[in-house]
């Protein structure tokens, strides 16, 4: 049984927006402001711009070949099995983190009125035993809703969209009207040679901003179930980023303006107020907006769990794609009678539960961002390679000025990964190493296609991963600081150009045969 094409363009757009409007809006403005102060507004603009450039590359790839779990399959066409195995693993690492993050956010907010759910460890809220029980129940609930009914999923998605956007708009308007302090915005726009830029860029990666925009990948993961893909996919991928950027900018401005100036006398990084564990609820309570507190309490459940529901849907498609490629047992590409990859969902649930041992929402987000932007890197690379490998294939959406835009997109991927800091990067290096060992076991057991293994791709993969880790270790974002801030831009720029040239040089030869195999899924 194959996946059915059942998502309309509007449904795809709403799915992507719902995936973005999750826990990021509940915590992102607080963490971004703690890192960058009022300049967090610039962080959101930079993060949104970078995401749009990256997303444009996937808009071309996914509209040309609308198959399930595209991020785990495009590398097969451009560089063969080896690259696809490794990049699929990295993509999956980022995907399975999503639902636990949203559940963690729900329980972290809930702890403001039910303290038994979390306790502080080094000033970070960590789930207690009771919290873990509730986390398990919520994860199971997301899986059940996901496989119970397709029509129910779509209807629930539409209601979620209406409610979540309504609450955000109401929150922004209420905070602007009730308590707005223009003096909090002093120093929003720093000079180009001031240290503020380090904080602004760190906020993109570690303040929940890059995480907030990861929802655009739903348009890629669900492309194999999309009607009118030439319209639906670009709309879902690009439209969702633009709409959510406007929503998040409004929230960040409202949050900064609503903070009592006395709370930031010692600097934004020391910002603290009653109810900080649930920042918007805390501010609404301080301002005496009881009606808004009640509304936000409802949304602290609806927004994260709604986003988690969509992530369960799209993440299962990544496992489905990896199973179709032979990296996982065929069991995980099994589709039930209602058209859902039920065993893929079960696998993601099992491994996702392990992620609750990471300390708090922000630690989860940092790990996710470092993995997800590396998986993004295959977009601009695959686009340029496939332009040369299958130049005559129909491309419903064709990216103009592809060469410079792909290089810029690749540069942004490497920058954001670097900004997450060495403490996150070294953990990711271990996770990637484990994945490579497991995938090679699958190779030697004869579970993957050896005819197009693409061993020459090591000519760009090894320098790419090694370079990222070395630059991060010696860099100024949690590293040794031997590469000073400012100079690291030049280093990563040169590194990005060299790696992209190597990736293009080590691409596969003819890919028509594999491309035709993928096209068989376009029902």
Task: Produce the secondary structure layout.
Blueprint: H1 9-20, H2 23-36, H3 40-64, H4 74-79, H5 81-110, E1 118-121, E2 124-127, H6 129-148, H7 150-178, H8 196-206, H9 209-212, H10 218-221, H11 229-258, H12 279-286, H13 290-324, H14 342-354, H15 360-376, H16 378-389, H17 402-419, H18 422-444, H19 458-474, H20 487-505, H21 512-519
Antiparallel strand pairs: 1-2
Q: Note the beta-strand portion.
A: under 5%
Rg over C-alpha atoms, rounded to the nearest angstrom:
22 Å
Q: SSE string, helix = H, strand = E?
A: HHHHHEEHHHHHHHHHHHHHHHH
CATH secondary-structure class = Mainly Alpha
Q: Profile the largest sheet.
A: 2 strands, antiparallel
Average pLDDT number: 80
At the fold tier of CATH, the topology name is Amino acid/polyamine transporter I
Considering the chains and any ligands shown, give keywords for the structure.
single chain; 523 residues; Amino acid/polyamine transporter I; 2 strands
Please give a structural write-up.
Helix 5 crosses helix 14. The mean pLDDT is 80. It contains 21 helices and two strands. With 523 residues, the protein is mostly helical. The longest helix is centred in the middle third of the chain and has 35 residues, at 290-324. The protein is globular. It has a single domain (9-354, 370-519), classed as Amino acid/polyamine transporter I (Up-down Bundle).
């Amino acid at each position: 049984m194959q996946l059915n094409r059942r998502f309309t363009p509007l449904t795809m757009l709403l799915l992507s927006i719902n995936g973005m409007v999750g826990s990021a809006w509940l915590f992102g403005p607080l963490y971004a402001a703690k890192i960058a102060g009022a300049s967090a507004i610039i962080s959101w603009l930079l993060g949104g711009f970078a995401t749009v450039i990256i997303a444009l590359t996937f808009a071309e790839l996914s509209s040309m070949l609308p198959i399930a779990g595209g991020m785990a399959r495009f590398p097969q066409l451009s560089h063969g099995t080896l690259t696809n195995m490794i990049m699929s693993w990295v993509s999956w690492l980022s995907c399975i983190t999503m639902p636990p993050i949203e559940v963690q956010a729900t329980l972290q907010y809930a702890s403001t009125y039910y303290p038994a759910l979390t306790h502080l460890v080094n000033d970070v809220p960590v789930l207690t035993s009771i919290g873990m029980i509730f986390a398990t129940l919520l994860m199971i609930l997301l899986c059940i809703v996901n496989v119970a009914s397709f029509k129910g999923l779509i209807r629930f998605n539409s209601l979620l969209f209406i409610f979540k956007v309504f609450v955000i708009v109401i929150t922004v308007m209420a905070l602007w009207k009730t308590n707005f302090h223009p003096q909090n915005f002093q120093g929003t726009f720093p000079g180009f040679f001031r240290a503020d830029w380090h904080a602004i860029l760190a906020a993109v990666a570690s303040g929940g901003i890059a995480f907030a925009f990861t929802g655009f990948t739903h348009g890629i993961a669900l492309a194999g179930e999309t009607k009118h893909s030439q319209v639906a996919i670009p709309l879902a991928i690009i439209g969702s980023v633009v709409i959510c950027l406007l929503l998040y900018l409004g929230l960040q401005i409202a949050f900064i303006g609503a903070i009592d100036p006395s709370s930031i006398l010692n600097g934004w990084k020391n910002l603290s107020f009653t109810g900080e564990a649930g920042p918007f609820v805390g501010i609404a309570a301080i301002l005496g907006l009881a009606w808004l507190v009640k509304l936000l309490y409802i949304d602290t459940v609806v927004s994260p769990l709604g986003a988690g529901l969509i992530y369960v849907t799209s993440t299962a498609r990544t496992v489905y794609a990896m199973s179709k490629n032979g990296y996982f047992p065929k069991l995980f590409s099994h589709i039930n009678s209602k058209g859902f990859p039920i065993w893929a969902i079960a696998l993601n649930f099992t491994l996702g539960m392990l992620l609750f041992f990471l300390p708090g929402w922000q630690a989860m987000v940092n790990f996710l961002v470092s993995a997800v932007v590396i998986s993004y890197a295959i977009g601009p690379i695959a686009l340029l390679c496939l332009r040369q490998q299958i130049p005559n294939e129909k491309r419903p959406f064709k990216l103009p000025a592809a060469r410079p835009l792909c290089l810029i997109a690749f540069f942004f991927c490497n920058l954001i990964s670097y900004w997450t800091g060495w403490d996150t990067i070294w953990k990711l290096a271990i996770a990637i190493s484990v994945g490579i060992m497991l995938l090679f076991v699958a190779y030697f057991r004869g579970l993957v296609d050896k005819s197009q293994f693409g061993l020459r791709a090591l000519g760009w993969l090894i320098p790419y991963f090694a370079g990222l880790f070395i630059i991060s270790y010696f860099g100024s974002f949690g590293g040794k600081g031997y590469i000073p801030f400012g100079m690291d831009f030049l280093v990563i720029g040169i590194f990005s150009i060299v790696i992209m040239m190597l990736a293009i040089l080590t691409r596969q030869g003819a890919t028509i045969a594999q491309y035709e195999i993928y096209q068989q899924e376009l029902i």
